Amino acid sequence: MADSKEISGQKAAATRKRNTTRKSATTTKTTASRTATSAKATAQDATSATTAETQVRLTQAQQMAERAVLVPVGASLVAGDNLVSTVKGIATKYRTRASVERELRRYERRGATARNRFERQVRRTRTRFERELRQRRSGVERTVKQNRRRFEREVRAVRRDLEKQSGTLVSRVEKLVSDASDRLPVS
Question: What is the pLDDT of residue 121?
């Protein structure tokens, strides 16, 4: 019986070994499968990101091209609409002789108003200029009068000083002459 126990132990060891190998192989297969799936998903994500980026750039280029065409077309249509509405407005405004005369009177009033406003502005400017000119002239005249008075005052003061000094000088000269004549022998 020892043999049977030994054999059954060997069988059990072989089963365990086989099971471990199977588990290891299954785990390796599963890991490999997961890695492959992950790699596929990563590759698909990268491809999808590249495709999405390309799609975004393509869409942007398409929008820019559309804009380049649509902007001038829209601008010309708006200009045409404005022209048509202006022509219609003028046609309705000047349809009859009375409306033309009414518009002419309106323009005349507006021109007269502008002329009157300009004339008032010119008068105000001229008045302001004349006032400033008078103020400056009176200021200059005032300064000239003050300077003339000051000059005349100083001239009078200098004249008085000269008269005093000449009087003093004359008296000194007379004194010197008299002293000199007293010292000279009389002949």
Answer: 97
